[in-house]
Amino acid sequence: MELPTSSRLNSRKRRKDGSGPNGATELDGIPPKMSRRSFGLREPAPFSDEVEIDYSKPYIRVTYEEAMRGTPLDRPVRVYADGIFDLFHSGHARALMQAKNLFPNTYLIVGVCSDELTHNFKGFTVMNENERYDAVQHCRYVDEVVRNAPWTLTPEFLAEHRIDFVAHDDIPYSSAGSDDVYKDIKEAGMFAPTQRTEGISTSDIITRIVRDYDVYARRNLQRGYTAKELNVSFINEKKYHLQERVDKVKKRVKDVEEKSKEFVQKVEEKSIDLIQKWEEKSREFIGNFLEMFGPEGALKHMLKEGKGRMLQAISPKQSPSSSPTHDRSPSPSFRWPFSTKTPPSSPANRSRNESAVTYDISEDEED
């Protein structure tokens, strides 16, 4: 029986033109509406020893074709996925999500190995078994959790939990003296492969912590953890404190440099604006000056016009040449009041007609 590949496991994608919920269509082979019988949606998933199973009814495994067509609500496909789930991360959650979505009606059972088995067969864990149980319980895709799960799956364990399929990534998992602990499951046609999430794993997270150990040790010392709790020696503790102070000084210097750069930049921007405004004003001033005092400026025209008016006002008008000349009659003699003498005449009149007017002025008055 050919089982679905990892590409088909993630085929449930949203489609904009889909008619069903979340863009699903009839071609997906998924009922448009299905009530999810999941404990993990509103509360933590229960442990297997807390769930009652009616063993009076015979349990018959469903085939892959029956599971894909969709089983009745009271008979979900029971899928089992196991692991250590140390430092529970998105890679774990994605694997469980794929296991939950293998079939239209899936009941996901997750087995978590104990500390004893894990330390014997794989290595030391960061989280203890109770913390790992609790992390898996609060994953929304999980319906039931098996504590102290076996390292290798036996027919008795599969029958006890009435498991139809086992979900795990298809990479051979060598452990406990076996090249692949899921070899018997694959031969029995009960294996459903999932796909690993690249770039995230428990080993990768631990590697980051080990690589940046000094950074995390300094951070936790700053947050109040003691050197004894962090297993840090006295010398390293003092070294970390000194590094912390040096980093603070560096940060302050860097902040000052950034602020000074910002200040200089603002000054440069303002100076550029001032220079541009000064250039614009100077051009305007020079233009106005040339317009007023330039060679063809308004002042020159004003001076020419004023000079012309001044010359016109100073110089008398010439009489026309064709006008007739009239001989002026001699002015009558005028006598000063209270005097018997005649006032002197003007030189012009005297030159014109000296004999016309006589003055009665004595020699004593002339002196």
From TrEMBL:
Family: Belongs to the cytidylyltransferase family.
Pfam families the record matches: CTP_transf_like
Keywords: Coiled coil, Lipid biosynthesis, Lipid metabolism, Nucleotidyltransferase, Phospholipid biosynthesis, Phospholipid metabolism, Transferase
Protein EC: 2.7.7.15
Ranges of biased composition (kind: Polar residues): 315-324, 340-356
Enzyme class: transferase
Coiled-coil annotated residue ranges, if any: 239-266
Pathway(s) it belongs to: Lipid metabolism; Phospholipid metabolism; phosphatidylcholine biosynthesis; phosphatidylcholine from phosphocholine: step 1/2
GO CC annotations, alphabetized: endoplasmic reticulum
Tree of life domain: Eukaryota
Cytidyltransferase-like domain span: 80-208
NCBIfam families tied to this protein: cyt_tran_rel
Function: Catalyzes the key rate-limiting step in the CDP-choline pathway for phosphatidylcholine biosynthesis.
InterPro entries listed in its UniProt record: CCT, Cyt_trans-like, Pcy1-like, Rossmann-like_a/b/a_fold
Region (Disordered) residue spans: 1-41, 313-367
Compositional bias (Low complexity): 330-339
Catalytic activity: phosphocholine + CTP + H(+) = CDP-choline + diphosphate
PANTHER family for the chain: CHOLINE-PHOSPHATE CYTIDYLYLTRANSFERASE A, CYTIDYLYLTRANSFERASE
Name of protein: choline-phosphate cytidylyltransferase
One annotated GO molecular function: choline-phosphate cytidylyltransferase activity
Organism: Pelecanus crispus
